[in-house]
């Protein structure tokens, strides 16, 4: 049963309540390896579902365009203060609706149409909002991309420096959405300083690891840091931008009135809750366990002949090139889903296949670590992945694996669902 229980919804709209219950059950029964997903706490769920959704508050605390901000102002101030304190940043904006609008705000703050910026190629692990040709950031601006080495699978800082010197970008983005290795913030800062660019670290995936001390922090190196709040940071769907004093006003203006209207106050409150949770000692343990689980899973997959991009992982994320397993990413992901293992098909660097049916799959350990799985369970997870991929057309085997997964997970409670009578 969903936690907190959906008693009012069940009475008012049983169809929808039934669907939400089914989703909660699905999240309970599956090994969720989508690298951008997690399980938030019941406290975060309660804040997200609160009456704060009723309130409009365009502007910032102390300077709003609507009355009645006696309570919303301190809520937003609390979220901002917790963000500044957790990451050690001078300024925080907690209003971006999600990670993509947060990045748009960066573009709006520092670039004019046609201006050049430097970022990681989408197919090498970058994000759509880092200048993909199908994104407004690729259509209206002039992105130049660095990539990873064919052999190393890692960002090549010599290439970054050469491109920066040749192209003189106004903004340099580091970070991305499928990077299994540590981002070298000091090296990026050195390049940005040399060419006079604003350095932006997009830590959407690794924010929880940074907060928990399991990945180096970009604070002190990046001028601007964007992040979602719902991936490893384990908060509600939303985003934040952290900046130095120097860039605070430009970013605030770009979010409002540049891009957005009223902030989602229920989300702001839930972000504040998640930031408090992330400041606790046990969140450090959680962040370390995410990485330990990813390393153990990477080792177990490698032992089974899987070809990991960059040869392993430093963080929560594993990218696998399935070419040597004679299956593409999409049919593999679909078979795994039927076997109770949820992940996404993904492009790998230098992928000869198309993005809609690429060669790889992407996995992450943030959600299963929240469930309480540890290193000792990773051999079983790797074996299940291996068996399901080998039996991609064999429904009976996939069903059997899904049953074994359900059995394992029955011993690991899920925040947001409880097996009540
Ligand atoms: C997830 C992600 C985003 C976008 O977040 P949304 O909330 O999905 O808009 C931006 N940048 C990176 C690197 C991401 O991984």
TrEMBL record:
Q: Which CDD domains match?
A: SHMT
> Main localization of the protein?
cytoplasm
What InterPro entries is this protein classified in?
Answer: PyrdxlP-dep_Trfase (IPR015424), PyrdxlP-dep_Trfase_major (IPR015421), PyrdxlP-dep_Trfase_small (IPR015422), Ser_HO-MeTrfase (IPR001085), Ser_HO-MeTrfase-like (IPR049943), Ser_HO-MeTrfase_PLP_BS (IPR019798), SHMT-like_dom (IPR039429)
Write down the position(s) of the site called Plays an important role in substrate specificity: 230
Q: Which PROSITE patterns match?
A: SHMT
Q: Looking at the Swiss-Prot or TrEMBL record, what is one Pfam family this protein matches? A: SHMT
Binding residues for (6S)-5,6,7,8-tetrahydrofolate: 122, 126-128, 245
- Alphabetically ordered keywords of this record: Amino-acid biosynthesis, Cytoplasm, One-carbon metabolism, Pyridoxal phosphate, Transferase
* Reaction it catalyzes: (6R)-5,10-methylene-5,6,7,8-tetrahydrofolate + glycine + H2O = (6S)-5,6,7,8-tetrahydrofolate + L-serine
SUPFAM superfamilies annotated for this entry? PLP-dependent transferases
Q: What is said about its interaction partners and assembly?
A: Homodimer.
Q: Record's NCBIfam families? A: PRK00011.1
Which PANTHER family is this protein grouped with? SERINE HYDROXYMETHYLTRANSFERASE (PTHR11680)
Protein name as catalogued = Serine hydroxymethyltransferase
């Amino acid at each position: 049963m969903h936690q907190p229980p959906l008693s009012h919804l069940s009475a008012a709209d049983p169809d929808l309540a039934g669907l939400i219950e089914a989703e909660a059950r699905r999240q309970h029964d599956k090994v969720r390896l989508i690298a951008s997903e997690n399980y938030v706490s019941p406290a975060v769920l309660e804040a997200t579902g609160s009456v704060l959704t009723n309130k409009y508050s365009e502007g910032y605390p102390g300077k709003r365009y609507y009355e009645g901000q006696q309570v919303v102002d301190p809520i937003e101030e609390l979220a901002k203060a917790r963000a500044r304190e957790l990451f050690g940043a001078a300024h925080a904006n907690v209003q971006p609706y999600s990670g993509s609008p947060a990045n748009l705000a960066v573009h709006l703050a520092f670039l004019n149409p046609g201006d050049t910026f430097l970022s990681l190629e989408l197919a090498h692990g970058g994000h759509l909002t880092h200048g993909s040709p199908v994104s407004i950031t690729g259509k209206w601006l002039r992105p130049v991309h660095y990539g990873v080495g064919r052999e190393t699978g890692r960002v090549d800082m010599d290439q970054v420096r050469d491109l920066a010197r040749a192209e003189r970008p106004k903004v340099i983005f580091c970070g991305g959405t499928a990077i299994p290795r540590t981002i070298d913030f000091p090296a990026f800062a050195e390049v940005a300083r040399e060419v006079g660019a604003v350095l932006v670290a997009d830590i959407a995936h690794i924010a929880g690891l940074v907060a928990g001390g399991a990945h180096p922090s970009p604070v002190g190196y990046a001028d601007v840091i964007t992040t979602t709040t719902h991936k490893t940071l384990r908060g509600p769907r939303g985003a934040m931008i952290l900046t130095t004093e120097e860039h605070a006003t430009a970013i605030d203006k770009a979010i409002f009135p540049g891009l957005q209207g009223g902030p989602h106050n229920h989300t702001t409150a839930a972000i504040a809750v998640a930031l408090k949770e992330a400041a606790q000692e046990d969140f450090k343990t959680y962040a370390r366990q995410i990485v330990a689980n990813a390393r153990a899973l990477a080792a177990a997959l490698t032992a089974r002949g899987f070809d990991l991009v960059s040869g392993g992982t430093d963080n929560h994320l594993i990218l696998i090139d399935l070419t040597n397993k004679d299956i593409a990413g999409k049919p593999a992901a679909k078979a795994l889903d039927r076997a109770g293992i949820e992940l996404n098909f993904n492009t790998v660097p230098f992928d000869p296949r198309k993005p809609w049916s690429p060669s790889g799959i992407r996995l992450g350990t943030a959600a299963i670590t929240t469930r309480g799985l540890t290193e000792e369970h990773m051999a079983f997870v790797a074996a299940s992945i291996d068996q399901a991929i080998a039996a991609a057309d064999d429904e009976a085997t996939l069903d059997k694996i899904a049953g074994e997964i359900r059995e394992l997970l029955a011993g690991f409670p899920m925040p947001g669902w409880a097996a009540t009578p």
